[in-house]
Amino acid sequence: MLAGALARDGMAVTVFESRPAVRAGAFLFLDDRGHDALEGLGVARDRLYAASQPVSTIRVEYAPGPVRSRPSNHRMYLRADLMGVLTEFAASTPAEFHYDTPIADLDLESRTLCGDSTRFAADELIIAADGIDSRARNHLEPERTPEYAGQVVVYGRTDKPLQPDTEPSVLHFNGQIDETVSPTPAFGHIWNDSISVWFARITREQLAAADIGIQPVAPWVGAVESTAPAISDTIDLLLANTETAHFSNARNVPFARAEPPHPGLILCGDADHAITPAAGVGARDAIEDAAALHRALREGTSPTEAMAARRQQIDAERRQATPPGRSRRS
């Protein structure tokens, strides 16, 4: 999306992407801030809405606490559908894309990107949006590594749309408050006439690398049920109609002690400040990074100063945020 926006403004942009053009994965939620930023980059809002599902309300019930509900301006995306819209947008611009081209190393002195069997010269600024295991960040700050956030996250989609005994188009969060367990386990789900998806955050030791990705759900039924015992019937219905799910370790990339943004190599999104999915803002943070960089490069101001300002904003917002089911003092 950033490459497409810059290319539309007449800048020469080359993108090296390690994966295919559109890829499968889990699902995510974006609020109005994320959509506003994408629209500012040039992505049509109607295309985004057509590829997503509305979320009318966010409902939180962590027993034995009270039920809390608030209107929502979020939309739910299957990750592949969002990537399809963004790839379509970028492909309509003069930006040059090289898919299935991972960058294994880089040399800032000679401004050279090194692929598995090829070397590429970088004429200007290098922007690294290479994710939570960023090789660019490892090059700049080898000590700033991802930290396990204490939970395994599971994303599931039922084999056919279901209608549980809950309200449609509502993002339901459920959990069981236990002062001896931190972070708080949780189960969430949302459904409408065309789709039903669910997720679980299970507090436990992290998964081995071989267990990350698409895995059978059956061995995990008990662990998922334990996240929200009060709604076991709903959980059982969803799991009984889900054969496989996506499993991952929730991780953070702290930036409280990060080096200042490098003038020749800018870290963007998860490469700089990944946060556990429990916060629900990782995708929006990355999109707003892209918007800030686009604005700086279009206006001829400093992209390093733009990213320094983004870090300050993100840090302030994270300090104020309270994850569902947690009191501010916890």
Automatic annotation (TrEMBL):
Residues 297-330 are annotated as: Disordered. Residues 1-299 form the FAD-binding domain. The keyword Transmembrane does not apply. It holds the Pfam family FAD_binding_3. Keywords: Monooxygenase, Oxidoreductase. PANTHER family: MONOOXYGENASE (PTHR13789), PUTATIVE (AFU_ORTHOLOGUE AFUA_6G14510)-RELATED (PTHR13789:SF309). This is FAD-binding domain-containing protein. It comes from Nocardia callitridis.
